[in-house]
User: Fold these one by one.
Assistant:
Number 1:
Amino acid sequence: MSLWVDKYRPRELSKLDFHKEQAENLRNLCKQSDFPHLMFYGPSGAGKKTRIMCLLREMYGSGVERLRSETMTFTTPSNRKVEVMTVSSNYHLEVNPSDAGMYDRTVVIDLIKQVAQTHQIEISGQREFKVIVISEGDELTKDAQHALRRTMEKYVATCRIIISVNSTSRIIPAIRSRCLGIRVAAPNETEIVSILQNTCKREGLALPVELAKRLVDKSERNLRRALLMLEAAKVAKAPFTANQEIPDLDWQVFLRETASQIISEQTPVKLEKIRERLYELLIQGVPPNLIFRGLVEQLVSNCDMSIKAKTLEFATEYEHRMQSGAKHIFHLEAFVAQFMNIYKKFLSELVMTDDF
Amino acid sequence: MDQYPDENEEFELQYQDELELLEDLPDEFNAYDGPSTSKQAAAKQKENRAPPPALKDISRLGNSTLCSPQLSQITFGSSQLIGEDEGDGTSTGGLVNRRLFGTPKGPPVGRGCSTPFQRMPAIAELENTQLTSRGFGLEKENPAANQLQEVGLKNVNKRRLERDLFGDIDDLFHESYEDPMVKKARTEEQRDHEAINRILELRRKMRESSKTLRKDDVSRLKALHDFKMRNLSYEIPNWPFLAIQRSDLERIYVRFHSEEYEQRQLELISARGEVAGSLLGEAKVKIWQEAGEIVLSRAAAAEDPDVTLVNSNSNSEIGRLWVDKYKPRKYIDLLSDEMTNRSLLYWLKMWDKVVFGKAFHSKREQEAVTGEGGTAGGAGNQLNSFNKRTGKFESNGGWRQRKSRQALNTNVDALGRPMQKVALLCGPPGLGKTTLAHTIARHAGYNVREINASDDRSPEAFKLALENGTQMSSVLNEDKRPNCIVLDEIDGAPRQSIDYLVKFISDAVYSKVKAKGAKAEHNVLKRPIICICNDVYDPALRPLRQVAFVVSFPPIDAARLAERLVKIAYKEQLKTDFGSLIALAEKSGNDVRSCISSMQFFNAQKHSLTLQDVLNNNLGQKDRHQGLFAVWDAIFRIQRPRKTLQTDANKVDEPAQVTMTNTSVTTRVRNVLEVVHSSGDFERLTQGVYENYLQQKMPDPNFTGVCEALKWFCFTDSLQHQISRQQNYSVYPYLQYGFVVWHLLFATLAWPKIAFPTRGFEFQQKSTNQRNIFQAICKGVTTSALGVGQGRTLLLDTVPLLKRILSPQLRSVAVQLLSPKEQQDLRHTIEVMVDLGLTFVQVKSQEGHYVFQTEPDLDALSAFPGYTGLSLPYFSRQLIAREVDLERIRRAAPKGGAPSAAAAKTKPSGAAAQLPNHLQILKPKPISVSNMHSAPKQQLTKDFFGRITHKTTATNSAEESKTDAIVKSPIWYRYKEGFNNAVRKDVHIHELL
């Protein structure tokens, strides 16, 4: 509980800092007897998980905060052992099936169905059902999602499922229709600023508003990131100043540098160096679509208006194509080469028009 | 491999006795007890050959009336033999020498001699007396014959020439007894004439006495004599002739006849003989037939090994495949690499001790025994050795030491078997692996038992075959040689069978070690096993590969193969030239079988094989597996115009057009498709192209080509994903077209630099590594730190910032001396680390010094080159590591009533809590009230040296001064703790007061 992210995380619905109306609705939902399956969706760092935990606490009391984590082992049909981490209390079970990769279906079938089938032992509890929290639900494969839909219907008497996703677009409609969707939007700037300042106050620090605003910018309204950045900044320099340096995410910096290198030189040799950098990013586990996004953002912001549209067009084309492949490096490099191509053409045209 | 041709010869010398074995091979077919030394073999040879001369003798005597038109040749043969006889004293030595210098052994004068027995004189010499006595003995009742015999004996004993004469007679056993005439014709010396005259006279008498002489016999003899005179001459004649020199340096010219003529003459004579009837009637016919059979069999035996390329004139061989016809029959005919052959033969010979019960002596060992000193290498554990030719090979002794055999373990086990019980021959098809195995096994005196893919190789059948082959020998067959199992095409055998084979080999070893008794003998493998495979890296062969003596077959040299092809072409009268045969060899990838088959095909079609035919035809071109580099080379390189179909078709006078056609897009596309298709491993090929295409020279200023190429990479990737995910192989054929595009975009005429693609593999390795570290971190996160997120969020958002958070600035001083702010930072860091399950561990870095590393290795995660990770100095890490450990212990301890207790105090207080319990049992109930108060008092006595304890003692004592109940209490007890009295001190309350 020592990271500020954990330390100052609200534990009750009433104490949530933003989307208070929604919190009120959730509390009302708990009071009613028919509690539906829920799907929390919203960007990362918007407080979905916090909200879910608050909701659970509202339902079951402080007992849900007595957590224990376990590692469960499953055997897939192809006799592979898959390990999945679960965090559970007496009332709920939190699992991230995408840890199992392509074997998440096994997890859904074995674990979730099994838990859903069993009745709550403690009858005296407020609720006759328990809750399964599935985090990163949009990473579930289609198979796993299909395995889930029947479970959700059949064992509704003993269990509710709360899915936390970033985007509903990757959830099959069958599941979407079974859940009550709750959108958790990212907090706006003022909300974040106030949260940051509150945090600093509790830590006995003074946070200049300018710094807070810069933190918001830097963190892209990701509250978790903002808090972590704040804490990192504090470690770097204890009494905050307004124009203090804010630590950056290494991979973002790396990506930015890569983009600027693409702009600077368009040769096969450079392309090969870019490839190395892309490989490096992939090795470090940066997902290719994030790389794509980072590159495009940087390239578009640095290039001329006339080729922006083209760049975006190609980016969409290559990213879409990437989804149908397995070797992301090909597609990334193809996009880079394509950009180099149009950029070079643009430059040469520029030179020609200048001459005239 | 043979870099030292001289050494080859030396080796040949070294192995002279082996080579003699080669010579003796045909005889060994009859020999029961396997390989023998040359002397033995020679003796055997004599034994074997003893009966036929006797028969011949008889027939000769019986058919004295028959005369042969081939007398001329006979005489020639005899004189030649004389020469040879006198030329080299020992025929064996001569033979060996001939072998050494590579002249194929055969009748030195080609077809002039119709009886191909070169060794006859020697044998005749040895057998002479026996022969004559035996042969003549049959006719003892005939006095004339006796006399004749006497004369013969006299002649034999008298002079060498006469002996030669008889040798001659031996040689011509099936013809007739006209040799004296020959003698007469040849020699001028009077004594000989006299002797011959006497013989003739005696013979006439004999015939008269037997009364079967026909009237015209004399005239016939006369005619024959004339005939002979027509065919022999001392001057240079005007008919076709062959000049030969007689032992007395006289030149004789022998007439050449065409074979047809000879045949005709022979038939004429034999017909006449039949009409005439014979001296012995039916018996004679029988003997004649027998003799004929013997001649035939001996002709086959003698001619086969010497002339590898069997005479193709005989009608029975027309339908045969040339591949079979020209199969190597003997060790030295083998085309494969000499070193390979030898090492395999060496290995096989190492079995001799077990199989044949006689030790195999390596040359090295011989040397060691003969006391050359210093050369007694690894082979010194063989027991005995004979040094029959000690002095002979001293000069070439050092050979083996310099060039050791590749993988052959020359040591033998306790039973005298080689350490590697199985030989594994591997190489591409058509190099002659099977042939080698068979030839060598036969050569070493084994009976080959082949189990190949056409046989049932289920584990049971395999087991049966193995056991039968190794532990039994055939009873019915008179061929008593031991078995040698050849497991052909073993890479196709089921894995269980191979596992069984491995067990079979090693099991024998076990049982031997376990029980040395009689039962142990039961299972011991005592026969060599040769396995043959194409792909030695077949997964099923892995266990076998480890125990086997692996002989990999290098490709045959194209020139050497072409040489052999020339020979065959010559034999088959196929018109061709060396160049086209080399082209054929190269085209087929030096596949012997395919080359010979192609030649036969051409032969069947027409009567010449030209370069054009070779290049023009698809014959002999097999689906060869090309190396990856060859394929990449073909992709990145425009093939220079070669001698291809067009080149020859268009003739030399239009070279420009030829070049055009060759580098046209169509040709290139076809070529690339062909090459890529032959390789097949598209994924790896793609990766190779991907990692190399940017290095190629490309005239591509606008990146259009690169974009195009990358589009195809993307397409290929999509296809491959489709195939692997959905098993949708219907799109597979499209994969190869990417290579065509890449070829057209990037291929140049220059030699491309191609590196093996490693990046993809490295990428996978590193990714896996990173993933593992990340998983370890995920597992370590405790439930109190769930705010760091899960999965990707944790990796992308938390980890990079966490590195900063965990890098407080601490001075390198003791914990107590840190400023409050530093203390706070440290505290914070430690708590975060414990929450996340991180710690620092000391590891030895690659440079050799010790560093503290995060465990799990947070530093390695999202570490980009050129970016600082955790910026903690060594000291801070050490400090934090210690504190983290303490904090862990603290958290692991049961949470008591005082969670805010100082770190140093936690443990002692836990111990203190235990103590009252222990004492409570001893205490009487009423005092339990005071006992509660006594607990802190005990604590104080115990913490004698602690700084804080003094303070508490003071406060406690102050407290106690107030509480009279304790002071007044009648019960006192002493507290004793620890292992040593040294730190114990009794403190009385009044002392403290």
Note: The first strand of chain A starts at residue 37 and ends at 41.
Number 2:
Amino acid sequence: MRILIKGGRIIDPVENKDKTLDVLIENGKISALEKKLAADGAVTVDASGLLVAPGLIDMHVHLREPGYEAKETIETGLKAAVRGGFTGVACMPNTNPVADNQTVIKYIIDRASALGLARVWPIGALTRGSRGEQLTEMADLKNAGAAALSDDGRPVAGSGIMRRAMQYARMVGLTVISHCEDPELAAGGSMNEGFISTRLGLKGIPGAAEEVMVARDIILSELTGCPLHIAHVSTRGSVRLVREAKARGLKVTAEATPHHFTLTDAAVEGYNTSTKVNPPLRGEADVAAIKEGLADGTIDVIATDHAPHTMEEKDVEYDSAPFGLVGLETAVGLVWRELVRPGILTPAEAVAKMTVNPARLLGIEKDTLRPGAVADITIIDPSLEETVDPLSFASKGRNTPFAGWKLKGLPVLTMVGGKIVYSHAGIKIL
Amino acid sequence: MSSELAQKAKIMDQEGIRRAVTRIAHEIIERNKGTDNLALIGIRRRGVPLALRLAGKIKDIEGKEVPVGILDITLYRDDLATRAQHPLVRKTEVPFSVDGKKIVLVDDVMFTGRTIRAALDAVIDLGRPKIIQLAVLVDRGHRELPIRADYVGKNVPTSRREAVSVRLLETDNGEEVVIEEKET
Amino acid sequence: MGLKNKDLLGIEHFSPEEILLVLDTAASMKEIIGRQIKKVPTLRGKTVVNVFYEPSTRTRTSFELAAKYLSADSINISASGSSVVKGESLRDTSATIAALGADVVVLRHPMAGAPVLVAGQVKAAVINAGDGAHEHPTQALLDMYTVRDKKGALEGLKIAIVGDILHSRVARSDIWGFTRMGARVRVCGPSTMLPPGLENMGVEVFHRMEEALSGADVIIMLRIQLERQQQGLFPSVREYARLFGLNSEKLALAKPGALVMHPGPINRGVEIATEVAYGVQAVINEQVTNGLAVRMALLYLLAGGVAQ
């Protein structure tokens, strides 16, 4: 099957390309990238006025399967991914059982490839059962296909075990992704500690709960030489610590989520449990610092921390609700709203933080539109505006704080391996 | 509810009101054979100044102080369940025991009788008077309950479309009783 | 003139006019409490449901009595005697209460924001009887009533609130209420029990009780939960009582005739010395009576619904 994408603005950060070209896809690969291509009998996608980018990658999602299929399955999660413009996702190991062995890793990979939607790169657990006590068989995990290691959701409290995990991960050649949270400082908290938590009477989680662990893990990365990726940076202090680490040449990278660069803790007012997320929504200075960190390159990656929960779990008192919100289907719209349209990032910079940057961290090469490359492509319409309707989500999760928001700049076509896995009703395909 | 009111007729002026109060004071003394055990209770709002005026007249006539209480009947209204919002409650101030007393309830206008029904309940909640009598400045008819006044300043036949307004110097600008037409 | 919202969830969003309306109505209600026959027929046919997810003798009995004095039917649902212990969610419990036809729901819950969840679920008026560390609006209203009753007005008074502000819903509601009515509020407590951003609520923050009490017209002492010591929030009851307990020497620093208040129940000898708790300046028992009047006022004002 041949597909011709005509008249789109090609954004390829790897090739440093930003111009209007036609793309021809044959046999699952990009075969030509030129002006005014003609291809008899090819399916033609009219991309005039649209951005054509390498397939977006979300390196931080929770697919919940195996174990929590009521929240999400690999199938619904990947449908949400392609609807959100993502051709691939890396999924966190806090499933049940925990992805701390090759059986679970293989299960996820097999399940995902049978579906033929987005690609999946599982992240293996750093410690057994993510209990922070014993190392996992990291070499086995890597052989089975784990793209990185993390105890996301159950951060490693002990510095000793974290050090050994990083030493071992370095030997195996996998990046450690750290959800930085000091369990004692964060204990019992539901939201950011500050004036709003005082007013609402909710127990706060101070920014320091994240920052002390960011500092510790940077120091351990320096000690062990292990590449460290800081997940979902939420505070100004964390941005500063990462910036300093990078300036010293350490192998430290960081990601930020759309909700952390869009919302502040003021959103918690009214006790909407869809705003309950970990790390919590922070203050205005923190949001500004994250945007600055994205702009100056301190923060390398935009990832969603897509964390679906059931209605029953979220429809409770704020303190009783689980942490997490769904992000796959609102990410691109929020990136355009908060970063691209205000000029904080160029489209190419934004695309880089959702393609080549996470790809390099995970050791993936599907991140460019170069002829010969696998045809993982995302088309974005920068002027398409829609209202966020959780009921229309492909994800099982409806827990979004953005319900009713109008987002402009949305994915309209997602192609994985030359196959169109999602297309918006408005895009012209002949 | 905010229909405009157009004045139709003045039925009492300041003099008329004064004379009516004086006459009622005499009638109260006569009916009760003096002021022993007598107490007046004015119903908020305009029953209160009327009760105080009556007490003053009685003192002028008999030389005896008659205690005066203030009754707020809001909490006893029978239309609370049907109202979108509960009306303002003011204080009931009856600084004497009503037990065994001869109580004269005082109000400005008597209409359906529902206010008086509420006032009777309110007084009885305060204790057990020997007798309760009722004095009104104007009785405009249209009773919905089997209640009648013992002392009436003036009987005024009205239609239901009309409103009777009492204005007293203590509570309003001016001193008069007028009939007004509700323009719907 | 009435209350703007169907529910009373907190003082934070209450206007001075609404506070005055409640206090004035409460003054009328207090007359009823003084009668021999403490009952008016006002809320006949109305149903008040008291839902208590936390043990509370004072507040629950106060609401119960308030409903009875106004002739409403009242029922109590407590966490230990209901399907709550069988794992029913708050949302499902509120749906059940709504189906029962309650006109007013009085809710006490250990988690902040729970009344907001219920209020969005039921047509009945929801009165927050204390939610976590968020608000306890009826306590603040009865405190304001008591102070106004004793001092004539609230404007310009210096109010000192002393103790565990961090966990105190009473403190938060009092701060909103008194500052809104023009009083000047000072809070004082150990640094481990003062939440961040208090200054943004319009109060002055102190760590030394002597400074906080100097020239105060009203002293509101908060109950210290003794288990906070195990949580590492203060070193010992002994030191707490020495630094933040109210005794007659510290009381002497306040204005002569300053009121001593406490939401109860009291840890006598800890946050308040016996001689002060039973002293002439204490109005702790009056607070209880006034609480009844304030709750009658609120039931009356909210059971009728809200004008559109």
Note: Chain B touches chain C at residues 72, 75-76, 80-81, 83-86, 88-93, 121-122, 125-127 (CB under 8 Å).
